[in-house]
Design goal:
Number of strands: 2
Strand order of the largest sheet: 1-2
Distance between the termini: 50 Å
Helix content: 40-55%
Oligomer: single chain
CATH architecture of the largest domain: Orthogonal Bundle
Strand content: under 5%
CATH class of the largest domain: Mainly Alpha
Number of domains: 2
Length: 219
């Protein structure tokens, strides 16, 4: 920022000198002698007010995400993708989970995908897989959503988006166990991430777009 301001000042002083010289002299000024070559003229000034909504209910800097998506469904899936893979469609983790949303091969089979290599190289298919899996999980957990949303477990208010995010992490069966044990049975994945953490981290998003579908398929 200091460098940019300095550039502005130098450019402004140069213009003033040139104007003064042109107004105080009868001679024609040869502008060809002057050039802006090498100067940084493409400035970007950030609007700090844009960052006020960027925390997305988290103090963890790794959770910073687009401040414009808010608590929409797109905000939900993109925040979840950022947590899973930093939004990278083409990554495979140490446990073999694939793509932007880190799907396991068995989960992919349940939603009609039997070629992991094709899945990994097909962003459009990955987006369809996320929707299909969320629809399937919402159908499986429909009674738990009805019975537990709004209740407080382990200090957090249960929301539908938190339930769906936790189901993406651990599967709907682990979410049922967590809810029905009132937080005692708290599954953790290979990296130590728990159902409780996802319930809290992804609470309060609008997931009404997702319709319960027992037979949801991505293809």
């Amino acid at each position: 920022m200091i460098k940019n301001i300095g550039g502005y000042v130098i450019t402004a002083l140069t213009i003033c000198v040139l104007l003064y010289a042109s107004l105080s002299s009868n001679e024609t000024l040869d502008l060809s002698k002057y050039s802006t070559q090498g100067l940084e003229l493409n400035y970007t000034v950030s609007d700090e007010s844009d960052y006020s909504d960027a925390l997305l209910a988290s103090n963890d800097t790794e959770e910073l995400f687009s401040p414009y998506l808010g608590k929409t469904f797109v905000g939900f899936k993109e925040a979840l993708a950022f947590k899973e893979s930093r939004g990278n469609y083409f990554t495979v983790n140490n446990f073999g989970y694939l793509g932007k949303y880190q799907f396991g091969k068995e989960t992919l089979k349940m939603i009609g995908i039997h070629n992991p290599k094709n899945f990994l190289n097909n962003p459009a298919l990955q987006e369809k897989a996320f929707i299909a899996n969320a629809e399937r999980n919402k159908w499986i957990l429909r009674r738990d959503i009805k019975n537990f949303v709004g209740k407080r477990i382990n200090g957090i208010v249960i929301t539908e988006s938190g339930i769906l995010a936790a189901a993406h992490l651990a599967g709907p069966g682990s979410v049922k166990k967590y809810l029905r044990s009132y937080g005692i049975d708290n599954f953790a994945d290979g990296f130590g991430t728990t159902v409780h953490y996802y319930m809290k981290r992804f609470s309060g998003y609008d997931t009404s777009f997702v319709k319960p579908n027992r037979k949801a398929k991505a293809v």
